[in-house]
Amino acid sequence: MIKIKVSELLGKHKMTQKDLAEKADIRPNTVSLLYHEKIQRLDVDMIDKLCKVFQLDDIRDLIEYLPENTDKNN
Questions:
Q1: DSSP assigned state of 2
Q2: How far, in Å, CA of 18 to CA of 23, rounded?
Q3: Which domain holds residue 20?
Q4: Is residue 9 situated within a structural domain?
Q5: How many domains does the chain have?
Q6: Does residue 21 sit within a domain?
Q7: In this structure, is residue 74 part of a structural domain?
Q8: Where is the HTH cro/C1-type domain (predicted)?
Q9: pLDDT tens by residue, 3-18
Q10: How many other C-beta atoms lie within 10 A of the C-beta of residue 34?
């Protein structure tokens, strides 16, 4: 599972979804999908814009891979 940390970053930076849409030049609907982790695809340009707005040095501060447990007994 991929975790998108936009909601955490917005809180940390005291920014609204509207602020992010304007600063990153991303459609408000797309920001909402990111916020609720419902987005299906992330394009490299969008990742770059988000990293710039949030001033991230590491992409892991934006997205995280959480392996799903494939063992049905656990």
A1: E
A2: 9
A3: 2-65
A4: yes
A5: 1
A6: yes
A7: no
A8: 6-62
A9: 999 999 999 999 999 9
A10: 25
SS3 13: coil
User: Contact, 10 vs 20, CB < 8 A?
Assistant: yes
Residue 73 CB partners (closer than 8 Å, separation 6+): none
**Residue 60 structure tokens:** 């892991």
Rg of the chain over CA atoms, in angstroms?
13
Which two tokens mark 36? Answer: 């609720």
* Coil/strand/helix, residue 65: strand
Length of the chain: 74
Residue-wise pLDDT tens digits, 2-57: 999 999 999 999 999 999 999 999 999 999 999 999 999 999 999 999 999 999 99
Rounded CA separation 37/26 (Å): 15
Which of 50, 43, 48 lies closest to 7 in space, CA to CA? 50
